[in-house]
Write a structure and sequence with these properties.
By secondary structure, this protein is an alpha/beta fold. The protein is built from 19 helices and twelve strands.
């Protein structure tokens, strides 16, 4: 289990070891093109319909200002890491790469893989309108290295309004109510809980349950790795019991389905509920569904007082091309533009990292999110933000395996979770 975690760290080390190649080897295949206008090669893993439309906001604005945009999509985060590592090893890093600003991301500036954008952040007064916890996540040793574009929350519950109204149900506020509602939805001929095939989707539900059972302090002890044996406590058995009971209500035949497919099934009235981040809202709206008319948004039971945040950002690999450096600084400023952020997040389903965005420009879900990021002690980093990337993947994998395989006992599962947490 530890091997994949160490391979991840070796991959980061490779990025460091190869990022200071001589200038003669730093020329990219596109470097002989016309460089009179700023050019950015943008590495990202936003490939769903709504994600692509959201990213188009930045692309069109950049090109409209006279810049050039070379799009470099990857299928997921792990694929992006490999591509970036390979490009750095061959001497031509991308100009900008999408990255989650989390505790693990601080390894990049610590090892000299990316360069800071402090001069833009200071000149444009980012610290005046970004939440303090976001400033901490995008900084290293007092200097800002990441340009944040949005805040997602992972602990949302999406419900189909027509199904719930027909069955006279309200969005559940406890896990017993979730199970009760799921049974009634199933009896009425609908899929109770929509899920795609990815392990992380299943893990999001589990993380919601763990928080509701352990409470804030217990959840923090688990996720930050300070007390691995917390996974062996009786509270975990309770969480695992709720989690396993939900399995009977998940949609069958999930193989090959994505989170976006699951979201659309809620919008169409084929499924009653989905536990997912607010990127689900982006996908629902891209398909023509309307919040409060076709679907509702509430926070998952037991997590109503907190926002499980993920900060999407861009980082800027170190290179030897001065024109790339100029493009990187301009791109960072472009990412933080108020109009760009508002338009991007309206499509993406997230909320802007800027607390100076007006409430009147937000829908019901966005207003809830703005209240959480503007208030003190109302946000915590999501599980994937707290744990190092490969450790997080181990957590998701074993959680999904437990959900899918009824032969795994709760006690065995506790031991596996404790083993993962002991890595930190």
């Amino acid at each position: 289990m530890l091997r994949r975690y160490y391979r991840y760290r070796q991959c980061i080390a490779l990025m460091l070891a190869t990022c200071f190649l001589p200038a003669a080897y730093a020329e990219s295949p596109s470097s002989k093109k016309n460089v009179s206008l700023p050019t950015v090669e943008v590495m990202h893993f936003w490939i769903s319909q709504s994600e692509g439309k959201a990213l188009d906001i930045y692309r069109r604005a950049w090109e409209g200002s006279g810049g050039k945009w070379e799009d470099m999509p990857a299928r997921d985060r792990q694929a992006e890491l490999k591509i970036v590592s390979d490009r750095i090893a061959n001497g031509y890093p991308p100009t900008a790469m999408q990255w989650h600003a989390n505790e693990g991301a601080k390894e990049l500036p610590a090892m000299g893989v990316i360069q800071d954008i402090e001069e833009v952040a200071t000149a444009d007064h980012w610290r005046d309108f970004l939440p303090p916890n976001v400033i901490d996540l995008i900084s290293y040793k007092g200097r800002i290295y990441f340009a944040p574009v949005n805040i997602h929350a992972e602990n949302w519950l999406w419900t189909n309004k027509r199904i719930f109204d027909r069955l006279h149900l309200s969005p559940p506020t406890s896990w017993n109510e979730v199970l009760d509602s799921a049974a009634k939805i199933k009896a009425a001929g609908y899929t109770p809980i929509a899920l795609g095939s990815s392990t992380w989707e299943v893990a999001l539900i589990f993380n919601d349950i763990v928080y509701s059972v352990y409470g804030p302090a217990g959840y923090a002890r688990l996720m930050n790795g300070s007390s691995p044996n917390a996974a062996l406590e009786p509270a975990m058995l309770k969480a695992l019991d709720i989690f396993r009971r939900l399995r009977a209500f998940a949609n069958p035949g999930r193989a090959g389905k994505t989170w976006a497919d699951a979201a659309i099934s809620v919008g169409r009235g084929q499924a009653g509920m989905q536990f997912l981040g607010d990127y689900a809202k982006g996908e629902l709206m891209a398909a023509g569904f309307v919040v409060d008319k076709d679907f509702r948004c509430t926070l998952a039971p037991g997590t109503e007082s907190v926002y499980f945040i993920i900060v999407d950002s861009f980082a800027f690999p170190i290179g030897n091309n001065k024109l790339d450096r100029r493009s990187q600084l301009l791109f960072a400023r472009h990412l933080m533009n108020v109009d760009n952020q508002l338009a991007f997040n309206r499509i993406k389903g997230s909320i802007s990292v800027r607390t100076d965005i007006q409430r009147k420009d937000l829908d019901t879900c966005g207003k809830i999110g703005l209240d959480f990021i503007s208030g003190k002690n109302k946000q915590i980093s999501a599980q994937s933000m707290v744990m190092p990337s490969q450790m997080s993947q181990e957590w998701m994998d074993i959680v999904a395996e437990y959900f899918n395989d009824p032969k795994i006992t709760p006690v065995n599962m506790q031991r596996q979770l404790a083993d993962v947490l002991s890595q930190k």
